[in-house]
Every structure is written in C-alpha cells, then in structure tokens.
Amino acid sequence: MNRICELFGIKYPIIMGGMSWAGTPKLAAAVSEAGGLGIIGAGPMRKNDLQKAIDEIRNLTDKPFGVNIILVSPYADELVETVLENNVPIVTFGAGNPTKYIKSLKNNGIKVVPVVASDSLARMVERSGADAIVAEGMESGGHIGEVTTFVLVNAVSRKVKIPVIAAGGIVDGRGMAAAFALGAEGVQMGTRFIASKEADIHENFKQLIIKSGIRDTVVTGASLGHSARVIKTKFAKKVKNLEVSSPEEAENILVGSLRKAVLDGNLDEGSFMAGQTTGLINEIKSVKEIIKDILNEFNDVIKNLRERHL
User: Fold this and answer.
1) Contact at 8 Å (CB) between 11 and 33?
2) Per-residue pLDDT for the chain (310 aa), expressed as one digit of tens each?
3) What's the whole-model pTM score?
4) What is the C-alpha to C-alpha distance for residues 196 and 63, in angstroms, rounded to an integer?
C-alpha cells in the first residue's frame, strides 16, 4: 500500500494545500470525501475561528482531515493548542521550522507534516520526528522558496526516509506521475482545488485562474523578504513597482490583500495567489471530478511508459 495513504488513512495520495482564506471546511471536506486529504487553512485564524472550522468539517465528513498552520502567524501557539484539544488527525506546517511543536503533537497521536523548500530543512524535521514532508517548489502559488519542484523533490526524496509529498506545479495525472518518478509518494495541490465548484471563493478568482496562462503569474514581495506567487493584475504590478520606489508602502498595501482577493474578488486591491498551473486549468469542476481525472490520467501515463519499455 502507498505509504501516504496508509499514514493518513485515505484512499488516494492527493492532499489539498493549506490555503489561507480559501482552505475552508467545505472545500476540505469535499477533498476528504473524494478520497484525498482535505486541509483547513488556519492561516489568519485565531483559536475560536479554528475551533468553529474543526466543528464544521466534522459535521460535513467522517473522513480524515488536517489543519495547516502558518508559523509566521502570531497565533501559532494557540492554534497548535486547539489542534491538540480537538485531536485533529494531521497537521501540516508552513513558513518556518515547526520542530518545537512536533514532540507534543506526536505524543498525542497526531501526524506532523512540515512543508519545506530546502533539503536541509527536510533533514532537520525528519530528525525531529516528522511523519512525512511536503517538498514545495517555487512553481506553487502563495509564499514560495527558490528551488523548482523538479529539483527539490528529487533532492529531498534522496535524503530522507519518511514519505515525501510533492507540491508546486502539479495539477493533473501527468504531474503526479512525474512527482512519483522523482521519489514522491503523494502530491499536494492548491490552485487546482481553488478552481472547483466547492471552493468558497469569489468567482473573479476562479475566472482569473481558468483564463490565465502559464506565464501569467508573477512573484511579489521578494525584496521585502516574503516572496509570493500571484496572478498578474494591475495590483500585482503596482506592488512590484512600489517594492523598488517605496518598500514601506508596498508592505502596507499587501496587508489584507489575500483576503480581498479570495472573499471579495477585488481586482484593484487583491493578491490572487496561484501557481503556474493556471495555464493548465481551463474548466471549473467538482472536486470529485478533479480527483477522478487525475487518477485516470496518472494510470494512463504509467501504462504508456510501461509499453515503451523505458
């Protein structure tokens, strides 16, 4: 059996990215119900917010689910506490080193899965007891590192013994097959699930995704110390310009910009975080259809490779 499926108790090794504002209980439950692993994006939440989200997803599904905690959040400690109090099955961590939390979570039977952008951090969290690792390349949407998925997954899977989940630039069965060829045992996707019927985001965001090409994203915030891949808009261009002329103003207008994109569809003030896979998504489908299509294409790719005797 696939180690990721066995570890999480899921049918398919497909994990939903932990997306702030977009990673709602409704979307996470849909992914879990379809056989993958749904993840609540706790990004901007506080304790009470996360408690409500956990209660909601448990009313929507009895399948395994997880919570993603962003370590730059000032509320990370209380979010971990909430996870412990509710015995959430799986926790993924982003934007930092979660080693100080790993022991207490594992002692309570909670699976810990850090998201990493380097092989050195991957080795560190493995030594600290992580159960699996998400190796996320710079093709992904939102906050990113500096190494591509193709190189990162290849390197990380060679240097750790725990299962590796590939993320960044993966949207279909071809991408999943490529990730597995590099040593991954699962894939994580965010942008693909945003463009789904169950996603609780503004229609403007979904339309931007399906209308954008593979070159229609840009990295903002690099000079400010927090690189993020977003869809090219007038606002993204404004941020890029201000990073050079007025970094402080750039910081100021970025505050709350993701919320404005996800919930309001605000094209003038929103940061529409999405990966380079926008150019590979041309239709909004249900989560169940998305996962089915991925698995069918994955199996076709594997079959074709075997027939070619590669």
Assistant:
1) no
2) 699 999 999 999 999 999 999 999 999 999 999 999 999 999 899 999 999 999 999 999 999 999 999 998 899 999 999 999 999 999 999 888 899 999 999 999 999 999 999 999 999 999 999 999 999 999 999 888 899 999 999 999 999 999 999 999 999 999 999 999 999 999 999 999 999 999 999 999 999 999 999 999 999 988 888 888 999 999 999 998 988 899 888 888 888 898 999 999 999 999 999 999 998 999 999 999 999 999 999 999 998 888 876 5
3) 0.93
4) 20
DSSP assignment string, 58-116: HHH-SS-EEEEEETTSTTHHHHHHHHHHHT-SEEEEESS--HHHHHHHHHTT-EEEEEE
Gap between the terminal Cα atoms of the chain: 24
CB–CB of 138/229 below 8 Å? yes
Mark residue 293 as left, alpha or beta (left: phi above 0; alpha: psi -120 to 50; beta: remaining): alpha
> Are the CB atoms for 170 and 152 separated by under 8 Å?
no
Which among 219, 192, 206, 212 has a CA at the least distance from the CA of 262?
A: 206
Closest CA to 115 of 90, 139, 103, 98: 98
CA triple 166-170-175, angle to 5 deg: 90
Distance CA 195, CA 286 (A): 9
Name residues whose C-beta falls within 8 Å of residue 216's C-beta, 6 or more positions apart in sequence: 231, 232, 278, 279
